[in-house]
Amino acid sequence: MTRSPPLLHFDHNASTPVDAAVLQEMLPFLAERSGNPSSTHSVGREARVAVDRARARVAGVVAARPDQVVLTAGGTEANNLAVLGAAREAASRGRHVLVSAVEHASVLGPCSRLREEGFEVEVVPVGRDGRVDPRRVAGAVRRDTTLVCVMAANNETGALQPVLEILRLLPSGVLLHCDATQVPGKVPLGEIVRKPHLLSLSSHKVHGPKGAGALVVRTPARPQPLLFGGGQEHGLRPGTENVPALVGFGAALERAAARTDEYVRTVGARTRALLAHLLDGIPGSRLLGPEDPASRLPNTFALSFPVRDGRALVPALDLAGILASSGSACASGAPEPSHVLAGMGVSREEASRTVRFSLGREVEEWDAEEAARRIRRALDPLLVAHGRQI
Ligand code: PMP
Q: Distance of CA 34 to CAs 30, 214, 233, 249, 254, Å?
């Protein structure tokens, strides 16, 4: 009997499996330790201690004070709170907001909302490699600019953005929001998580549960709340805390950050090897995004393939047990090509035949050459120019 080949999970930027150790920490809070952190009895206090421990762990990873960490229900909520909350708070000083062209929908969506409220939101273009030029950002700042939004790393191309250079060029008083959901565990964090005034994080990108995240708020940022109610999270995110998810988030973020060096070494090497085998074995395939691996997340690359109908790519890979994503997972299913690729000047046609591969920790389970061969075999019936075999 032939054994089916292992599943190749190359869609980790969409989501990651919960770590076994993280799940173990969460389980009691899904069962008997069911307290509401606002309750003053012993079971409530136990839940409060757990949430505060999660907050302290998040704060430790980003070198913040615990009271600077607003725990949220994920990256989307953190981004909404940052963009809407900070722009509205500063509205009496100015109504000009700058945002990079390749931000996630959970940043661009609130920006559209700001426009409806009378703000002027200016989109800063990116180069062909998907990276923002810090001088272009600085050059677009006006006297009435209050907020600049540039992500740490793009989820579709892996492009690392020059957030620190941008910060250095910004006049004081202009806030920088950085969506850092894709970076923990993948690159050494350092100043990129310490310096931005508003920093968004998400749990399920770092082997934690879905529906948890944080916004780190540093002076002088003081976002207005989007929700009103019981006053939790310093009134910035009221609502009974999702204790098990937050416990998992704190544990997962800490574990991911602690293992970064190993991740960069192992996942980075395997990603570069897989990319090289694919480019070599599938003539006509093209890397979209930064050429230099040092300018990309170590686990991510976007490749366009020479096929007639790009819609068949992800299903063909899926049938062969290979998980990947066309553009951004959040946007897949939508007929519009990815705004990220469009922003890089990639044609609609090429964007429609682009696949994003985002690898994960399980590199010991597969071999790069064999994985490239499986991908080539899965796509073979679709490829227009049948070139070299691998
Ligand atoms: N920002 C980026 C860059 C992302 O990749 C994602 C997830 N696709 C989010 C924000 C949203 O995070 P969440 O899924 O936790 O809402």
A: 7, 22, 19, 17, 24
Q: Is 182 in the pocket of ligand 1 (CB under 6 A)?
A: yes
- What's the 76 CA to ligand 1 centre distance in angstroms? 6
- Return the bridge partners of 160, or none: 153
CB 356 within 8 A of CB 340: no
Ligand 1 pocket mutation pick from 76, 237, 326 by most atoms within 8 angstroms of CB: 76
Give tens-digit pLDDT for 225-263.
Answer: 999 999 999 999 999 999 999 999 999 999 999 999 999
Structurally, at CATH architecture level, domain 20-258 sits in 3-Layer(aba) Sandwich (3.40)
> At which residue do the structure tokens 């100043």 appear?
191
Distance CA 380, CA 389 (A): 10
Q: Would you say domain 8-16+260-389 falls under CATH 3.90.1150.10?
A: yes
**Active centre residues (catalytic):** 330
Looking only at Cα atoms, what is the longest distance across the chain?
71
Confirm or reject: Cβ of 80 under 6 Å from ligand 1: no
Residue ID of nearest Cα to ligand 1 atom 13 = 75
**287: β partners:** 303
Phi/psi-derived region of residue 288, left when phi > 0, alpha when psi is between -120 and 50, beta in every other case: beta
Instruction: Give pLDDT, residue 366.
Output: 86
Which protein residue has the closest C-alpha to ligand 1 atom 12? Answer: 75
Domain boundaries, the chain: 8-16+260-389, 20-258
